[in-house]
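Per reviewer request, we include the raw input and output of the structure prediction for the construct analysed in the revised manuscript.
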Amino acid sequence: MKHALVTGGSGVLGAAICRTLATEGYHVFVHANSRPEGAEAVAESIRSAGGSAGVLVFDVTNAQAVESALQPLVDSQPIQVLVNNAGIHDDAVFPGMQEKQWHQVIDVSLNGFFHVTHTLMMPMIRSRWGRIVNMSSVASLTGNRGQVNYSAAKGALNAATKSLALEVASRGITVNAVAPGIIDSEMIQGSFDKSAIERMVPMKRAGTPEEVADLVGFLASPRAAYITGQVISINGGLI
C-alpha cells in the first residue's frame, strides 16, 4: 500500500482530500499543527469507512520539526503522494499590512512546501514513482485586493511547481498545482455571501471541497501519469 501525506488535513478541504485518497487505496497521513483533534477525527472517519489512516502533528514552518516527524517514516517506506495543502491567509490592504502578516503567510505556504517536500524528495526519487500536488489559489493567477501576501505565496508556489516538475519528470514523479476559486469552506465564511457568489461565478455557486478533492485524487493517481508542471484551475468559470 502506497503512503500519502496531506498537510493541513484537518480542515474542510484537507479532510475531503484525505478521504478521497483513502478511497483510492492509499494509507493517508492526516497532518495538523494547531488542531490535532481535528486530524484524528478525519483519520477515524477514514478507518470507520474501511480505509487506512494515521495522524502526524508538526509545524510545517519548522524545518527540524518536519524532519523529526517525517524522516523516521520514509526511512522504512517512501511517502509517494504529497499534497501540500497547509496554508493560511491574514488579509490586509498592502499599506496597512504588518511585517508579521507578510512573513507568516509566506512561511506556511511557501517555506512549508520546501520543508515537507524536501524531506520526502529523495526517498520518492529512489522509488521512481510519485505525485506531488500543491494547493494554490485563483488569487495566484488574478491577484486579489487585500491579499498581496497570499497571492505572492501562491504565485511563487506555482513557479516552484513548474520548476520541480522539470527536475523530477524522468523519475516517474509528477508535480502539479491546483488553483481553487471560491470553495465552500471556512476560508470563505464572512467573505462572500450568496448574492456575491452569484455575481462573480458564472456557475452561480461556490465549489464543494469534494469537487476539488476529486481533481486532486485524479492527479495523484496512475491515470494522470502524463500531466506534470501544470497549474489547474477549478473555479466554476470565474476566470
